[in-house]
Write a structure and sequence with these properties.
By secondary structure, the protein is of the alpha+beta class. The chain has 2 domains: 61 residues; 79 residues, 3-Layer(aba) Sandwich (Glutaredoxin), CATH 3.40.30.10. The chain has 7 helices and 4 strands, in the order ααααβααβββα. The protein has a 4-stranded mixed beta sheet, with helices on one face. A hairpin with a 2-residue loop joins β3 and β4. The longest helix has 15 residues. The protein binds FE2/S2 (inorganic) cluster.
Length: 156
Amino acid sequence: MVDNKEKFAQLRKVIAEHKDEPGPLMPIMHAAQEIFGYLPMDVQIEIAESLGITLSEVYGVATFYSHFSLEPKGEHVISVCMGTACYVKGSQAVLDKLSDSLGIQPGGTTKDGKFTLLATRCLGACGLAPVLTVDEAVHGRVTPDEVPAILSIYED
Ligand code: FES
């Protein structure tokens, strides 16, 4: 396990590589999210200070793009598609069932750090609506009744 000190060393290296390029903020933030898994406040401060920009600029970008996360994510990330095709095929009921089963709201992470639940835009697999992904795995034509079986795959 890489400790925080080492992660910050990696971050400083990335900052040094991009600092003098035009538009260094996005690549640095992408790399920071890769390194830390999310963008904690001390990481945002480090980025802002290194680039000589304000913290609110960094925070603004971090909150604008859904790719960036301000909270640590769980071991498994469940994304339920709320795009039109999935919505009309009942993805809300699937999302509600997951929310109930895990005891968290969309956007939340279970206390044991096992699962993060997200509601997302079209995942590009509308023919399989309603669709959810768990990490890289795609589950199609999901019904609320199938939720326990899907979760059990990832609960050891
Ligand atoms: S609307 Fe859900 S995959 Fe496209």
